[in-house]
Every structure is written in structure tokens, then in C-alpha cells.
Design the sequence.
């Protein structure tokens, strides 16, 4: 499967549809070339590995008491460092990220994930190496 976004629910965006078509075409081109016997050299790519789903801050009654901090909003795939703001409580308190490494949040404040108790997903950047293929 291919998931391309972000895209609000019930909305069709031409730019996102175009990206999805390009990704699928590249995948099909690879399969065709592989089936024709083309050899591929080793390569390294940068990827983001999902580490943890992060919920909104909640009170003892499981009610949301904070929102995504304005400095985090719309910053998908951007580095988040120890001390950077994550949430802003309804009382105006800033809740900062407390971590021992830089992470890259994604799916920040996505409406589809509210019911799943997910404010964003923490990912880490890593490199994958593919061996020679023939």
C-alpha cells in the first residue's frame, strides 16, 4: 500500500494525487526493470522509523487538557529536540519535549487520529542500505 498525505478527510487534492501517481509509477517501473533482468547497484536511503505514538495531555478523567503548541503545528518531519515545546495546556502552560535524542514528529494534530488518542508520532531518522540486486 501507498499512503500519501497529509490530506484532510473527505478532500481530494490534485497535488497529493499527483504525488501518489508518481510513487506508484516508480514502483511499477522498478518491477518491470527487475523482471527484464536489470541489475541494481547497492544504495543507501534515509528513512524515518516510527518509535512511539504520543497522546494529548489528559487529566485524571481522561479529558484532553492541552493542544499542539503553535511552534510544533505544521512541522511534520522537522527535528524536535529536548526542551522544544509540544503542547499548550488550556491554562497556558507549555509542555516541552523531554527526550535524550532528536526525533522527527509526523501526523501532527491529524483529525483522523483524535479518536485514537494520538497527537503525533515520534520517528527517528535512520539509513537503510540495500545490497546489489540482480
Sequence:
Amino acid at each position: 500500500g501507498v499512503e500519501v498525505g497529509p490530506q484532510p478527510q473527505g478532500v481530494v487534492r490534485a497535488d497529493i494525487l499527483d504525488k501518489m501517481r508518481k510513487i506508484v509509477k516508480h514502483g511499477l517501473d522498478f518491477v518491470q526493470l527487475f523482471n527484464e533482468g536489470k541489475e541494481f547497484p547497492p544504495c543507501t536511503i534515509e528513512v524515518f522509523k516510527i518509535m512511539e505514538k504520543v497522546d494529548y495531555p489528559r487529566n485524571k478523567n481522561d479529558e484532553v487538557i492541552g493542544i499542539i503548541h503553535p511552534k510544533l503545528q505544521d512541522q511534520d518531519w522537522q527535528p524536535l529536540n529536548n526542551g522544544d515545546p509540544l503542547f499548550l495546556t488550556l491554562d497556558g502552560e507549555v509542555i516541552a519535549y523531554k527526550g535524550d535524542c532528536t526525533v522527527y514528529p509526523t501526523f501532527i494534530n491529524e483529525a483522523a487520529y483524535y479518536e485514537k488518542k494520538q497527537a503525533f508520532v515520534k520517528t527517528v531518522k535512520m539509513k537503510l542500505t540495500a545490497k546489489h540486486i540482480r
User: Anything to note?
Assistant: Residues 1-38 form one domain. The first helix runs from residue 14 to 35.
